[in-house]
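Task 17 of the worksheet. Students: predict the tertiary structure of the chain below and write it out as structure tokens. Keep your answer in the requested format; marks are given for formatting as well as content.
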Amino acid sequence: MQQVAIGIDLGGTQVRAALVDEQGRILARLAEPTDALAGPDRVLAQICGLADRLLAASKPASVVGVGVSAPGPLDTVAGVATDIPTLPGFVDFPLKAELQKRFPFPVDLENDAIAAAIGEWQFGIGKGLDNLVYVTVSTGIGGGVISDGRVIRGRKGMAAHVGHMSVVPDGELCPCGNRGCFEAYGSGPAFARRAQLRAMESRGTTIGRDGGAIDSRSVFAAARNGDPLANQLVDEEAEILGRGFTSLIHIFSPDIIVMGGGLSHEFDRLQPGIQAYISQWAMSAFKDVKVMLAALDQNSGLIGAAGLAFLAGKVAPT
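Model answer:
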């Protein structure tokens, strides 16, 4: 009998749902824009509606459970969304309990970056490894850690908020309220802000000269076309990421660092600079740790959420 899990990836922009089998294959998937401003009841109705539509269309033989990936901070021990910035009303909200009322299957809740780490560990680039650090580099920077073949969750299940380790004393203001965080320097918006400021000061760049938005996508496009400033900015971004990744390598001693998120779409351009920084500045015993591209792309969290249901149900993914 084929066993499947329902994976839910709840974000401020989209709610995605999928039926996933024991090998991590997506059998069916649906998504719709998150009606975030309508509040928790409406968002939970969206989650259940997507799941119902998947089940009605696919008629799976056996559903082992529902795994939900959501942005933090989450107290996954208590099952509570403490304060999700992109989802108004999700403040001290008992997300797991409210979903469990609505589903006849066991529900598990996980921080989105930890869920992505689980996805890559169970089904992606980290399959077969006992130690990895997953880092998503996108609107923010988040992470998940697998150590000695176990998911590191820490107090309240809030481990691996890697974007908020300090990299510059009294540095740039981070959205978390602190200064000098890795996220404040290495995230997509931080990269775009640097590009905007430097483009204003440079006469020789093509960045922004067409009147379009100056964002990470336009900077990488300009770099591919040979723009010197754009290439300098990309090299600086790779160095910033390399600095953060080197700290994570020293702390967790992983087999690999897995990079996901929006900026990972430019992995081929960033990876040489990241790896060069690690080779230069990591302690000698750690210089051989490779940075790898997430194999599941933007589905790491969705598949990882489904993987939660298999792990909780003691069904070993193969």
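Marker's comment: Residues 65 and 85 are 27 Å apart (CA to CA). The radius of gyration is 20 Å.
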